[in-house]
Amino acid sequence: MTQQLKAAPVSDAPPAARPHIGDYWRLTKPTIVVLLLITTIGAMFIAAEGAPPLDLLFWVFIGGSLAAGGANAINSFVDRDIDPLMSRTSQRPLPRNRVPPRHALLFGVGAVAASVLVYGLFVNWLSAGLALLGAIYYAGIYTGYLKRATPHNIVIGGGAGAIPPLVGWAAVHGELDFLAFILFAIIFFWTPPHTWALTLLVQKDYERVGVPMFPVVFGEDETRRQMVLYTIVLVGITLLPVATGDLSLFYGAAALILGGEFLRQTIVLWRSPSKSRANKLYRFSNNYLALLFLAMVLDRVFANGGFLP
Question: Which CATH superfamily is domain 21-304 in?
Answer without folding.
Answer: UbiA prenyltransferase (1.10.357.140)
